[in-house]
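Appendix C reproduces, verbatim, an entry submitted by the partner laboratory led by Prof. M.T., so that reviewers can inspect both the input and the predicted structure.
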Amino acid sequence: MILKLFPVILGAVQAVEAAIPLPSAGKAKLDLVLGTVTDVYSSTQQVTPEMPLDRLTALVTQTVARVVTTFNALGIFKKG
């Protein structure tokens, strides 16, 4: 499932970073991504019928953290 979601998560992280280029706003940015995931999940169980919401949000949180860490290390996300 994560391989299907990865491009979406990657795009979401990049979109949030572009929309909110504030340093030290990681928690707010993550909350925005997770809130969106929760909204989509709540609106249709067809997205993830085999995975409960808490497992999905944990998986998305871990993936976002890995993406952000990698982007920071590569200099893709510039720190303020």
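The longest helix spans residues 53-74. Additional entries are available on request from the coordinating office.
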